[in-house]
Write a structure and sequence with these properties.
Elements lengths: L4 E7 L19 H6 L2 E7 L5 E8 L2 E8 L7 E2 L16 E2 L5 E6 L2 E6 L5 E3 L8 E5 L6 E7 L2 E7 L10 E2 L5 E8 L5 E8 L7 E6 L6 E2 L8 E6 L5 E6 L6 E6 L5 E3 L6 E7 L5 E8 L2 E8 L4 E6 L4 E7 L5 E8 L2 E9 L10 E2 L6 H4 L7 E6 L5 E7 L10 E5 L15 H8 L3 E5 L9 H5 L8 H14 L4 E11 L1 H11 L8 E5 L5 H7 L2 H11 L6 H6 L13 E6 L8 H12 L4 E6 L9 H19 L1
Parallel strand pairs: 32-33, 32-34, 34-35, 35-36, 36-37
Antiparallel strand pairs: 1-37, 2-3, 3-4, 4-5, 6-7, 7-8, 8-9, 10-11, 11-12, 12-13, 14-15, 15-16, 16-17, 18-19, 19-20, 20-21, 22-23, 23-24, 24-25, 26-27, 27-28, 28-29, 30-31, 31-33
Helix pairs in contact: 5-6, 7-8
Length: about 625
């Protein structure tokens, strides 16, 4: 199929194909490999421990599949109607407590699918952006979050009713609700409440399952409490909170509301799960981009590393008898896989069974590389953590070009995870530096809040400092540096070209990013708008800050060519942001290439469009840097 290009334009002299065999990455690398690798994700272990449901990104779909935990059997496809979704915006399917049915989200509506007969049934059909579905313990209800007026509130659906029945609202809060969790007895529902009057705050709350008074277990100005999970006996609610300056693990007693600290690691706990007997908790601890599994003994708070290997673990789930876990694991050299781990294994020990197999022979032969974790100096005495990928052939006698690759967000981070695009760029002979600039998660609240009120200032300084750091490495050619980013990373790429009097970067790639954050606040969706307000304040009270953070006012200073890419259906960053940037570039007679893909949102999903973009990215980087 052909790419769905809605618009293509260029100014100045565009890049051209260069038929140089040295510019082609070695076999088995190809654009088809880059586009064709599937992704297994968002697995859910059944209550009886016999089966795993998961989402498989393949064939332009993100459908649900099923496989036994014993392994050795080909997965069974459960759904056929879910279009491709970006993995960062999708959600995990949920089992009912009889392990006979799954509930899930498809295009903003709640669905169920029977495990035995594979019959999919739509529960909602009113276009109110339903999410977070989870069945009640008795199977009579499905709880979810849905737009009720201006905010997302907790609702109840009776699956026995006709499709599209209006859900019953259980909360009427002035703010959004997320992550509902029924208690083991089914009488209460825990959830996270995000009050609108404090965008830095989230609270752990409970409400009776039939509705009624909401009890706020936690809540303090500027404190984010999240991830509520009931202990198996229903006596405790575990949760994650940043009240210490780090995301740590806590529990609150359901009867008294007393909060107790469970961990004090000085690092970020990302998620956790109670053991079936309630005596242990498995949690993921992030240190320097490695998401290791740890086990906590609740009685005395003793904690130990359970599986600490370079890579990233997610969604740990206990077998019913507590003897093993399932977990997803990925690394720079391994695509995401579902593993089964015996609980008694030592750190990095044996007994691990792989339940999914995504590593193809081509990937095994591709020479995938693990990055070095580094720090580099920036302004205000700050040191910026980053991942540095070095091509095997780079040396002081043969220095290589390099790409600085800032992540999106900005409240996100680069971790030791799977990114095939990075590996492809590396295979072509480019070094890659992936910085966790100020504002990134994973390095404590102070580091994350260093960006607040200073979009476009300290983060731009971190991008220019990244170029200086690379220029100091004798195996890097400082005259051949480029910068490439998506979403917030795209915004930083434009800033790095527009606000650098030294013109350190020879080219930049901006993929669906902002150029004028004040206009973007008005044009984007509510989630993006509130995230911007959370970090920069309301524009009515900080108009100078919004202007200072917008590279559109500095386009005249750009000296290097830009490749600009956007989807015409992007709700988070309106495509008008790229259109405005291109208009300014055209007005100032700058060199640029501009592509709009029809039907794409905040992230390219269609294989033909992704392949076309990667081909243009390759041509652009090779033209200006090789």
């Amino acid at each position: 199929m052909k790419p769905t290009i809605a618009k293509e334009e260029h100014g100045g002299r565009p890049s051209e194909p260069r038929p140089d065999p040295l510019r082609i990455p070695p076999p088995p690398w190809s654009l088809d490999l880059l586009v064709g690798v599937n992704r297994v994700r968002h697995h859910a272990l059944s209550p009886d421990g016999q089966q795993i449901a998961f989402i498989w990104d393949r064939d332009n779909h993100s459908d649900l599949w099923l496989m036994p935990t014993a392994g050795g059997s080909w997965p069974t496809r459960l759904t056929f109607h879910r279009p491709a979704c970006t993995f960062w915006s999708d959600s995990q399917p949920r089992w009912d407590f009889q392990a006979s049915m799954l509930v899930y989200v498809a295009e903003g509506e709640i669905w169920t699918v029977g495990v035995e007969d594979g019959t999919a049934r739509q529960l909602t059909g009113y276009g109110m952006a339903a999410s977070w579905p989870i069945p009640s313990p008795d199977g009579n209800d499905v709880y979810c979050v849905s737009e009720q007026g201006q905010y997302q509130n907790l609702c109840r659906i009776r699956p026995q009713r006709l499709e599209g029945a209006w859900p019953s609202a259980l909360t009427h809060l002035q703010g959004d609700v997320s992550d509902p969790r029924p208690s083991p007895s089914g009488g209460l529902i825990a959830f996270v409440f995000h009050p609108r009057d404090d965008l830095e705050r989230s609270e752990i709350c409970i409400v009776p399952s039939e509705g009624g008074e909401v009890k706020h277990f936690t809540g303090a100005q500027g404190v984010r409490d999240r991830w509520p999970r009931w202990s198996p006996d229903g006596g405790m609610l575990g949760f994650v909170s940043n009240r210490s300056g780090w995301d740590e693990l806590y529990q609150v007693e359901a009867a008294t509301g007393e909060v107790q600290s469970l961990t004090s690691m000085g690092a970020t706990v990302t998620e956790f799960a109670w053991s079936p007997d309630g005596r242990q908790v498995v949690y993921v601890l992030n240190r320097n981009g490695v998401g290791a599994l740890h086990l906590l003994r609740v009685a005395d708070r003793h904690t130990r590393a359970f599986r600490d290997v370079p890579g990233w673990h997610s969604r740990p789930q206990w077998a019913p008898d507590g003897s093993w876990l399932t977990v997803e694991f990925e690394s720079p050299t391994s695509p995401p896989e579902i593993l089964r781990l015996p609980v008694q294994a030592e750190v990095g020990g044996g007994g691990i069974e792989r339940l999914s197999f995504s590593m193809s022979p081509a990937l095994q032969a591709a020479g995938l590389k693990t990055p070095e974790f580094v720090h580099y100096p920036s302004t205000d005495g700050c040191r910026i953590p980053a991942l540095l990928f070095r091509p095997g052939q780079a040396s002081s006698k043969s220095p290589c070009p390099a790409i600085v690759y800032p992540h999106g967000g900005p409240t996100s981070e680069w971790v030791q995870g799977w990114d095939l695009l990075m590996q492809w760029i590396l295979a072509k002979g480019y070094a890659v530096l992936a910085p966790n600039y100020r504002g990134s998660t994973g390095y404590g609240l102070e580091f994350q809040h260093a960006l607040h009120g200073r979009w476009g200032i300290v983060d731009t300084a971190d991008m220019l400092a990244a170029a200086d750091y690379l220029a100091g490495l004798d195996w890097i050619d400082s005259g051949r540096l480029g910068i490439f980013g998506m979403s917030y990373g795209s915004y930083l790429a434009v800033l790095a070209l527009a606000r650098d009097p030294q013109h350190r970067y020879r080219c930049g790639v901006a993929k669906y990013g902002d150029s004028d954050i004040l206009r973007s606040w008005a044009q984007g969706d509510r989630v993006g708008r509130e995230d911007l307000e959370r970090q920069m304040g309301h524009p009515a009270h900080n108009r100078p800050g919004y202007q200072a953070g917008s590279p559109i006012y500095d386009v005249e200073n750009i000296q290097s060519p830009l490749l600009i890419v956007h989807g015409d259906s992007d709700a988070r960053v309106n495509p008008k942001q790229s259109e405005e940037l291109v208009s300014a570039l055209r007005r100032h007679d700058k060199t640029f290439e501009y592509i709009i893909y029809e039907g794409e949102g905040h992230g390219l999903l269609y294989p033909e469009n992704r392949r076309h973009f990667y081909a243009r990215l390759e041509r652009f980087l090779d033209w200006y840097l090789l």
